[in-house]
Design goal:
Length: about 525
Amino acid sequence: MTTLTIGLDGANWDLIGDWLDEGRLPNLQRLIDDGIGGVSESCLPPITVPNWKCYATGKNPGKLDVFRFDRIDTAGREHVFHDATDFRSAELWDYLNDEGLTAGVINKPSTYPPKEIDGFVVAGGPDASETTYRSLDHGFATPADVETFLREELDYRVHPNPMISPTEKGDAEVEAVLDLIDTRFEAADRLLEREDPDFLHLTVFYSMALQHYFWDDEPVRRAWERIDENLGRFLDAGHDILIMSDHGTWHVDTVFYINSWLEQEGYLATERGVDELLGRVGFTKERALSAAKTLGMTETLAKVVPERVQRLVPWEEGVKRDRVLSVLDWDRTTAVASNQGPIYLAIDPSDPAYEPTRDELIRKLEALTHPETGQRIVKAVYRGEEFYEGPYAENAPDLLLDQGENVHVSDAVGPDEPIAAEGVWAGGNMPEGIFLFSGPRFRSDGLTERASITDLTPTLLHAMGAAVPTDVDGEVLDVFAPGSEPAERGVETRLPISGDRESAAGDSDAVEQRLADLGYLE
């Protein structure tokens, strides 16, 4: 018997409730009927990174030293993009290995570059990048023979082709995501048989991209039906299975352009440049990409037009991602924000103006409401170093936003009004995800529970007879069947092991572009 985790990026019960009721997801319904689970609360911000690592380590970001895909270095005036080597913690599979158990990890975000474990690691999107030294055809998995097997036997892809993005979301892009879902499950099935690990983790990631662009429309339903069909591969083999997500997804009713708000309130200033002029004459990235696709020249233009020139062209919403920093008037800027809410102050914490500025921003943001509905735009604003716990909490963003219900916080600069009815995403990230344990060792109580995403790894370790490290934030959940071995055995604890890894050299441009294409870097 292998213990399986099947991670479904951005899944939540409200999204799929009607499809379960209609009988469209029979395998998932069977797991629900036979198992125990409910809502899993993700760490803030509720996004792919850091939450897949919060699951795998059982820790909040203050113990990981990574709080988002990227961070804004206001002193250096640059974006810094993270990879797997930046996280300061051992993971679930490291502890299983230390107990003499083998593990396999497939497609979990924040695993690139892949590390050597007793088992195998297949790095996952969206962070596995393609550069001179980091090819998607090679170097995405360890050990080498597993990568060769995936490439030669399954024609395995790390990313869909064509890639879905705000400007490219037609039938071809949807089909590429659906095909990738099948490939992920096929890889898990084949490697389960080939490698026979004691534990196997699989993430389905790009279905979340469909939820971003289509919310609950047909492409998303088709993706969930494809996921459900593939779940059937594992239901009759006697495995213990955890179904979980890094966060949930809600319909976006309101877009809050936080950097436009900061500019309106006098905390952020821009130097108008080429991108504003191009926008005024209607030359936007959406129009340029549409024309290139019509002419069949997308790849050609991407190769021959320098990256620095491509970045000058604004999106229809305005200036986004690294262009935000490049158009700032830093001498007149005191605060700048990332997508989904972290705010970084361009004021040293030792400056007497630092705390009054944070107090003022907290007060203003928490009082902000929609001009028509009166809805709160932000539920709460936290000081990063106080919200997180751990040795790296002091490296957190200066302020952390908990987005209002059905609100998406975008970092785009340029919209005339900071609050809008719609933007790039139809579906945005929410903190409430899913978890569901099902199998011989678990109770059959349905969806009655609530947990933290950090509880899942301690629970899995205990279920597999392994000790729980003393530095985790999560707890072992009361989910085991009466009389089962884990229910009868007390929770054993152990000292932590180091998870530090040497940083790998490489260009982050490809990672940045992929995240931007998916809408994570607005």
